[in-house]
Amino acid sequence: MSIGIRNYAIVTATYWAFTITDGALRLLVLLHFHELGYTPVQLAFLFLLYEFFGIVTNLVGGWLAARTGLRLTLVLGLALQVVALGMLALLNREWNMATSVGYVMGCQALSGIAKDLTKMSAKSAIKVLVPTGDDSALFKWVAFLTGSKNALKGAGFFVGGLLLSTLGFRGALAAMAIAVCGVLVFVLVSLPASVGQAKAKPAFKGILSNSPGINRLSLARMALFAARDVWFVVSVPIFLSSVLGWTFTQVGGFLALWVIGYGGVQSLSPIVLARITNGRAPGPSMAMTLGIALAGVTALIPIGLQLGAPPAWTMLGGLGLFGIVFALNSAVHSYLVLAYSEADRVSLSVGFYYTANAAGRLIGTLLSGVLYQQAGVTASLWGAVVLAGAAGVGAFFLPPVESTASWAAAKGDD
Questions:
Q1: What is the value of pTM for the model shown?
Q2: C-alpha pair distances (Å), 220 with each of 10, 231, 291, 337, 340
Q3: CA 120 to CA 351: how far, in whole Å?
Q4: For 273, phi and psi rounded to 5 degrees?
């Protein structure tokens, strides 16, 4: 095995392990505090600092990784996740509501920093380790890493619901903290410190992108992920639990299957999209088309609910279609940000791009609680329609990708 493939395997395995705990933690917090009587808006606030610090982390983390290498940012992410899990386990049920919300928001802020440091490190490693100019391999490995990550995040939702049912809130947090500690030790002894260091140390002002392609793509990305989280974070899980009467395990199982399916489609996106693009890498027009299609698919769900269709089947079927189109759209975005990036600035470019990603999640998270509390799950879904449409319109203004390399070899069978 070459050194590049070995290092990629280490980074990917680390990202996989972290992703399971991240998905599990999100569902643990949501269901545990919903059970304690928190309102949808209060539940949304629990995740606001998680998303806000993702914005800050992606900006600063990309600059830090370019100067020090990706191992440091990866290790920092894992260490902060251990701290966040340990602090959440110390939560006292006797505290008043305001104190509890503030404390959990602080813990979630640490977890948000940890998640985005880890994700930025893993995504940037692909550009560093794939040979320059090989668009086929680049799209293939981006799709594989992103799709597998989402599948494992889905598994994390199931793990979170299961651990909450079997070990309780504190027991689940302790088990996950031990697991992340083991991964941290593995990275320290296995991954070279020099991976991802830039040849020239970028100045701090370099954290802001000066690439029109990345700037415009980042706006489209922000709208795309707001369209997902406006229903995903609070609205649909609480709807399933409160309105349809589903158990913790059932809610976690559905979210797990949805994300796993979405991740599977993302991993297979090179095959699916190759049939449309005649074997060439997808361009801005594909991102625009998929954004508009996502808005149309999403609109079918609230229309079906308003026409009296069975709520469970309408929700499950509609969100299944949403997941397929969203996965393809997200995969195209993930390819385009690397295609627009220069190899020596990749961690900065990816960091800036995921700053917009985190901003979209922040917007979607807040709207998820507010819209659900004001007008129910239908309002959240119409919000998703508007935001998905904005992502499609935003992609219309993307510049063309200069590379013309074929990606017919990107079979996505890894």
A1: 0.70
A2: 31, 18, 9, 11, 15
A3: 6
A4: -75, -25
CA distance 248 to 162: 8
Q: Give the closest residue to 59 by CA, choosing from 250, 241, 204, 230.
A: 204
Distances (CA, A) of 359 to 82, 101, 218, 282, 328: 24, 21, 10, 25, 21
User: Rounded to the nearest 5 degrees, what angle is found at the Cα of 387, between the Cα atoms of 319 and 282?
Assistant: 80
Based on C-alpha coordinates, what's the Rg of the chain? 20
Give 377-394 pLDDT, tens digit per residue. Answer: 899 999 999 999 999 998
Q: Which helix (H) or strand (E) holds 184?
A: helix 168-190
Structural class in CATH, domain 3-395: mainly alpha
CB 266 within 8 A of CB 149: no
Q: Name the amino acid, one letter, at 81.
A: Q
Interval 253-312: pLDDT, tens = 888 888 888 777 877 777 777 777 776 777 788 889 999 999 999 999 999 998 989 988
Residue (of 84, 390, 376) closest to 234 by Cα position: 376
Beta carbons within 8 Å of 6's beta carbon, 6+ residues apart: none
Quote the CA–CA distance of 11 and 318 in Å, as a whole number. 34
The SS3 of residue 246 is coil
Q: Look at residues 214, 190, 196, 199 and name the one whose alpha carbon lies nearest to residue 125.
A: 196
> CB under 8 Å to 348, separation ≥6 — which residues?
62, 63, 66, 202, 206, 207, 209
Instruction: Answer for the pair 355, 219: CB distance below 8 angstroms, yes or no.
Output: no
In single-letter form, the type of residue at position 398 comes to L
Answer yes or no: are the C-beta atoms of 187 and 75 closer than 8 Å.
Answer: yes
Residue found under tokens 């794939």: 130
